[in-house]
């Protein structure tokens, strides 16, 4: 913990933030000082989930949560603190898990009504096991877009996850519930899976951190095999420090069948010891292909980085971005269709939402030749990007091309396929998945309606320490201007 800042109370500008999320360190300090217990936090969490699941908000945060199991975990954690023997800084911390990741005692539905029946959950995924061993309280399975095949986070079976900043707006997908529970204060951290921006998009729309590590950094055992070459477990958190703690915790012992990864390094997150001479690559034409509010906000955020740290912008061109997008779509669609093909033919049409049926129909139309061609494009794009990384430390862009948009009246029952907004949401996410690059989104402001805007940093493989450090610097600048969501639960409040 020595690499973390000593306090999250003040920003780089020395100002008290108008709003901030309770952090893992806040929970840990409160437990150690006996100001509150994990049992009390668990009781407040359960009450908040119950309240949020009913009118008027009907947030649809979770697909499943088990109050008895949550309280059982909390009681064990409380006892450890009473005995002065917490397992780790994560002991007693509520963490939510996207329903694409195995976590006992819950079935893993993938946002469907049928998948858990043909693929039962037999234990924790490797990443979840690491968190459980650290003493975290695993509080349930968060809502998601059905089979991850969409960007809105609207699920016809389990409800439309609503944005805590405006409940009439989408939370984003596919890790919608994970982003929303963090934004709403129910958990400091949640896990998602990112195959096409599915962690970073909802994180940006809900005003939280979204970290997608390098492909292969976090073990993938126990994650639904929707997209095995582009999907990656990611972290959604209220602060970059919390994302970093969970990232480090999940880098535990690898299963014996997994390849060896590069050594894990931890950055020193101290605003007074910032990395010097950072070069940020910006492709202006691509960067500016977003709404006016996003373009202005993200440009101003970059200006502040340059002003505070004297970091430099390197103007670059990223060739064939549209070709890469289509190749990624062919890849993720082919892999999803193949992984589910043996089950789909046995299903009745009404068992799958309308939007997922359309997506699967498109996915099933891709040929093996198209898939192989896409992999050749992948190699070519990696060469393009590595040339850019020879000149710059990171590539910078908005996280999404639009902010959260309204949930249509009938979408909660049918699902939604909005290709115009969907294309704008996914526009900046592709390289992180198709090339396996690490990426992080940081909230940097709001549009005219008060909806959050995220700025994304993309790094070369295994450069998470640099990304986390840069994200911390950006967060320190923006922190004084963070706003409290419309829906927010204060689990550490003093009675």
UniProtKB/TrEMBL annotation:
GO MF? hydrolase activity, acting on carbon-nitrogen (but not peptide) bonds, in linear amides
Q: Which Pfam families match?
A: Amidase
Annotated Amidase domain residues = 66-467
Gene3D superfamilies of this UniProt entry? Amidase signature (AS) domain
| Family annotation (InterPro entries) | Amidase, Amidase_CS, Amidase_dom, AS_sf
Domain of life, per lineage: Eukaryota
Q: Which family does it belong to?
A: Belongs to the amidase family.
PANTHER family linked: AMIDASE DOMAIN-CONTAINING PROTEIN (PTHR11895:SF67), TRANSAMIDASE (PTHR11895)
Report the protein name in the record. Answer: Amidase domain-containing protein
